[in-house]
Amino acid sequence: MKITLISLYIMIFLLGCERGWVRKIVDPNYNGCTDKSACNYNKLSYVDDGSCIPKQGCNQWCEGDNGSVLELDCSGICGGQLIDDACGICGGSGVIQDCGCGNPGQFAIPEGKCDCDGNIYDECCICGGNGMPSGACDCEGNTQDEDDDGICDWNDGDSYETILIADQLWMLENLKVTQYSNGDIMPIWNSNSECSNQSNGAYIVYDNTPSNTNVYGNLYNWYAVNDDRGICPDGWHVPSDDEWTILIDYLGGNGVAGRKMKETGIIHWNSPNTGATNESGFTALPSGKYQGSHDSMGKYGYFWSNSTNGINVSFWQLAYNNSNAYNGHTSKTFAMSVRCINNTN
């Protein structure tokens, strides 16, 4: 009986060895990484337990190795430094430019031109354009010229109503000119155009809606206001801070002058149009401003002064919600309204 039991034990042991049961019990390496390409491959392991750690990078780096993980550069060199440039060329120095892709300075718009075909801006700030339309007196194609002098009526000084306040003769409406006083065309402000960039004179129509010009006039940047050719018609000029101050003081000072200058009601001004009496007759309108976008029509009227303060320039502001006449300073990139004053003052 004992022999039979011993024999049975021996048979079970041999069968367990054959099928790995015994090894599974007594061998600590039985479960482990069996992938020969892994960092932690164990040749003694019998069953993969999912613990394999793959080698990293093009240099097959494992934790504990010298160095660090390396990658292929665009030329296929492990650990190389070359990269694709903007044109997709490995190790190139090209950049994407207006006219193509190449080294800096190549394939760009030719100096002094406005496009890759070598065109230039015409007098109306149109790249490759033909200038002012035939028979028109400005770039917008207007032909209103009642005195038949070849100048659009709103570019004529005698086309504006005027008013005398404090012995100063003011225009009764905001400037609408599209030409300088010598007849040169003033470009329409176009943020994508070099001929109407931030260092050249230009005008803009609020919201690009021509009917706004009829009511509020145009908006002008400082470079147009300060141009030696003159933005106001002959016999007129952009008022200085001193000239504005004479007007404001005559109307009672900064705290109350605004209400005496603003048009009454809320047809053009936003409610409540605080204190507006327009007793001066100045009839100021809330024409807003432009600096990258159109802003504040109905709320504020901004008027240029020709006075400067270092790199900034002076302006005067009237508001829908108070009676003040505010004097501030701003950068030259704004576009605002112009009220001209007569040279005889």
What can you tell me about this protein's structure?
- The protein is α+β, with helices and mostly antiparallel strands.
- It has a domain at 152-345.
- It has 6 helices and 16 strands.
- The strands form 7 sheets. A 3-stranded antiparallel β-sheet has the order 7-8-15.
- A hairpin with a 6-residue loop joins strand 13 (312-319) and strand 14.
- It is elongated, with a radius of gyration of 40 Å.
- The N and C termini lie far apart (139 Å).
Task: Name the descriptors.
345 residues, 3-stranded antiparallel beta sheet, alpha+beta
What portion of residues belong to β-strands?
A: 15-25%
What's the story with the biggest beta sheet? 3 strands, antiparallel
What string gives the helices and strands in order? HHEEEEEEEHEHEHHEEEEEEE
Count the helices. How many?
6
Mean pLDDT value: 84
Helix content: 10-25%
Strand arrangement within the widest β-sheet reads 7-8-15
Structural class: alpha+beta
- How many β-strands, per DSSP? 16
Tell me the distance between the termini. 139 Å
The unreliable regions are 12-22
Principal-axis shape: elongated
Please tell me how large the radius of gyration is: 40 Å
Short description:
This protein is of the alpha+beta class.
Layout of secondary structure:
Elements: H1 2-19, H2 21-26, E1 31-32, E2 47-48, E3 95-97, E4 100-102, E5 162-165, E6 168-171, E7 203-204, H3 210-216, E8 219-221, H4 222-225, E9 236-237, H5 241-250, H6 254-261, E10 289-290, E11 294-295, E12 300-309, E13 312-319, E14 326-330, E15 335-336, E16 341-342
Parallel strand pairs: 1-2
Antiparallel strand pairs: 3-4, 5-6, 7-8, 8-15, 9-16, 10-11, 12-13, 13-14
